[in-house]
Design goal:
The chain is an alpha/beta fold. The chain has eight helices and seven strands. The chain has one domain: Rossmann fold, CATH 3.40.50.720. 45% of the residues lie in helices and 15% in strands. α1 packs across α7, α2 packs parallel to α3 and α3 packs parallel to α4.
């Protein structure tokens, strides 16, 4: 039975991905900050671990407790919508610590076993927001774009070891906690120059009209990356992400 380790499984894309892999007969190691919040079905094939991607000891402990795995899904992350001029340094650092350096830490923790076995798949979940310039999420975009660049180079480095690497790029999703998690970091609504831009973006994000991304879109893209050796390096997830990717083709 193959094993997948997924970070950030308490909600959204990670939760849906864990459910999908369980339904399809995999052993799932689901990691999250608060294991008590897990909305996953009881299963002998499920292992839930406490996990903080920004804590080196937590990363080491989770990977050791998981045992041998076949697929690593780096999904944990968070966003913040703030004008570049107004973003606080600690928020910028937190975005890179979680989204970029956290992904790097997991890769470094798992890759030795993949390299030794000459097999394994690493899937990094980033964002279709990296495909075009968008206001207010510049540092979030930068942290995810850094993962894209890291993954592209990693793919070249580990191909001789039989290790596959993929990037899954979700679009805008009204189902995730991105907006709720980003709100505490919001700055600029009291600034007459930035307020209209911020209010417009909040309204647009809450609007589900038009093409958007749903959690099953992302779970299915991750499944494709995990199980299809012919899958491309970059896989859009969601109608909006597919349209943005097509514009660049």
């Amino acid at each position: 039975m193959p094993t997948v380790l997924i970070t950030g499984c308490s909600s959204g894309f990670g939760l849906e991905t864990a459910r999908l892999f369980l339904d399809r007969g995999w052993r799932v190691v689901a990691t999250m900050r608060n294991p008590g919040a897990a909305a996953l079905p009881a299963s002998e094939n499920l292992q839930i671990l406490p996990f903080d991607v920004t804590d080196e000891a937590s990363v080491t402990s989770a990977v050791a407790a998981a045992g041998p795995i076949d697929v690593l899904v780096n999904n944990a992350g968070f966003g913040a919508a703030v004008p570049i001029e107004l973003i606080e340094a600690q928020t910028a650092r937190a975005l890179f610590d979680t989204n970029t350096l956290g992904t790097l830490a997991m890769i470094q923790a798992v890759l030795p076993q993949f390299r030794e076995r000459r097999a394994g798949v690493i899937i990094n979940v980033t964002s279709s927001a990296t495909l075009k310039p968008l206001p207010l999420i510049s540092i979030y975009r930068a942290s995810k774009a850094a993962v894209n660049a890291l993954t592209e180079s990693l793919a070249v480095e580990v191909e001789p070891f039989g290790v596959r690497v993929h990037i899954v790029l979700p679009g805008r999703s009204p189902e995730t906690r991105f907006g709720d998690n980003a709100m505490p970091h919001l700055r600029g609504l009291d600034n007459s120059d930035y307020a209209p831009l911020i209010e417009g973006m909040i309204s647009q994000f809450r609007n589900s009209d038009g093409p958007v991304t749903y959690a099953p879109d992302v779970a299915n893209a991750i499944w494709l990356a995990a199980t299809d050796p012919s899958a491309p390096l970059k896989i859009p997830a969601g109608k909006d992400a597919e349209e943005w990717m097509a514009e660049l083709a």
